[in-house]
Amino acid sequence: MPIVPRRVDINVEQTRNEQARRLLPELGYAGTTTNHIAERAGVNVASLYEYFPGKDAIVAQVAERLVERVLGPANPPGTRDGGAQ
Asked: Does residue 19 form part of some domain?
């Protein structure tokens, strides 16, 4: 089941995900914090928590988007269970 932000603000979401994607290889999972992500994205850390409960949810979405970029969406439109028959 995909991780979905509570509210959608495309610009904030894209910026946050891009910065998280860049920080993870640079600082590692343990070294990356929501404060780092917010600072790099130019937003208040409280605004991150309006969209996600914490770092794990942000990292999960970054990973999900990376997989979708490589393999395509898990459930393409018009299919059921990702096209499984």
From this structure: yes
H or E element: which one contains 47? Answer: helix 45-51
The pTM (predicted TM-score) of the whole model is 0.67
Question: Would residue 16 count as lying in a domain?
Answer: yes
DSSP assignment, residue 82?
G
The span from the CA of 82 to the CA of 50, in Å, is 30
Q: State mean pLDDT over 34-58.
A: 89
Length of the chain: 85
Interacting residues of 75 by C-beta distance below 8 A, sequence separation 6+:
81, 82, 83
Q: Are 6 and 51 in contact (CB under 8 A)?
A: yes
In a domain, 84, yes or no: no
